[in-house]
Amino acid sequence: MATPPLTADARPLRLALRADGLACAGSGLVLLLGAPVLPALLGLPLALVLSAGAFLIPFAAVLWLLAARPTPGSWETAPVVVLNACGWRVRWRSS
Length: 95
Description:
This protein is mainly α. Helices cover 77% and strands 0% of the residues. It has one domain (10-94).
């Protein structure tokens, strides 16, 4: 089966998904690799830092896979929007 042509409407969404995936992967790596020092710097429990980092790596992979689709569907991207909104809400409330 041939891949449908990429529509102009899907390009910004695919770019946003890739950028979000890269940001999540980078954040996850920082959290996992910085786990020995980040809890003391941020005042967070080690388990939270490790679990957040461990969540972000596969989440980034899912984002990258969604971005690879010719036209990501709204039912696929809606959970991404909700999870991002929850993440920003948690960050906003903690500051």
